Amino acid sequence: MNKYLVIGNPIEHSLSPKLHNFWIKVNNLDAIYEKKKINENKLADLILEIKKKNILGINVTVPFKKAVIPYLDKLTFESESTQSVNTIYLEDDKLVGHNTDIEGFERSIQDLKLDLINKKALVLGAGGVVPSIIFALNKMKVSEVIISNRTKSKAESLKYLFKNIKIVEWGKIPEFDIIINATSVGLKNEDKMNLDTSKVGKNKVFYDVIYNPSETNFLKAGKKLGNKTENGKMMFIYQAQSAFKIWHGIQPKINTEVIKILD
Ligand code: ATR
Questions:
Q1: Right CATH number for 2-99+239-261 from 3.30.70.1230, 3.30.300.30, 3.60.15.10, 3.40.50.10860?
Q2: To which CATH superfamily is domain 102-231 assigned?
Q3: Angle, alpha carbons 201-233-195 (nearest 5°)
Q4: What mean pLDDT comes out for the span 158-174?
Q5: Residue to substitute in 157, 183, 195, 208 for testing ligand 1 pocket (most ligand atoms within 8 angstroms of CB)
Q6: What is the pTM of this model?
C-alpha cells in the first residue's frame, strides 16, 4: 500500500486525511494518507523516507513550510518564489518541493468570478500562508498589495521576497477592493480582530483563509456592510486537489460530497 502523509505541529485538526482518503477510495487506489505531528528535528529523517520510497508524498503545514526546504533537492518556481513548500514528491530520484496553496487561492478567486486586475488588495497577517497569497495576487495582476500585521517587522521581512508590497501599521485600514484575513484570529468563535472595518463601505470582497468556523466575525462584519464574502474552504480543497493530481496523476472530482467533508 502506498503511503502519504501530512506533517505539522499541531496537526490533530487537519482535514487533509479525510479529503485525500475519500479521493483514494473513489478512485480505487491502493494507498493511505495519514497525519503525523512531528518536531523540527525529525524533518530530515521523515523526508528521507520519500527518497527510500517508503512514503510517496508529503503535505507540509504550519510551521514547517519553510523549514523543509534545506532537505529537498529541487524547488519549483512557485515554492522557490514564496520560500514555502506544502507538497513534496519524488521525480527522477530527486526530492521536489512545490506549493499548491497558490493555485488553491487563485482558483477560489476564479470561482467567485472576480477579476482582480488593477484592484487593490489588503492582506492581514504575515504568517505561513501569506507569501502564497501575495504570489497569487501578483499573478492575478492586482495594482497593489498592502500588508498589515500586528508585528510590523514580520510584514517588513516579506519585502525580501516581494519588492512591490506596501506595509501599513496594524489598525490602519487603507482603501482596498479585497481584504484577506490571513491571521489566525477567528479560529475560535469568540475571536475578534482588533480592527475597525465599520467604515470600509460596500462593493468590496472580504475573504477569510479560515474555513472552520465557516463564518468568522471578520466575514460577518463584511457581510453586514453589504460586501461579498468567502471563506477558505475552496482554497483548501483546491490545494489538496492539486497535490493529489501530482502524486496520483488523477484529477479528483470536487462535488457536494467532497465539500461536505469539510463541514
Ligand atoms: P506563523 O506566524 O507561525 O506562520 P500563522 O498561523 O501562519 O503562524 O500566522 C499567524 C498570524 O496571525 C500572524 O500574522 C500573527 O501576527 P503576529 O506576526 O503579530 O504574531 C497573526 N495573529 C495571531 N493572533 C493575532 C491577534 N490576536 N491579533 C492580530 N494578529 C494576530
A1: 3.40.50.10860
A2: NAD(P)-binding Rossmann-like Domain (3.40.50.720)
A3: 35
A4: 97
A5: 183
A6: 0.96
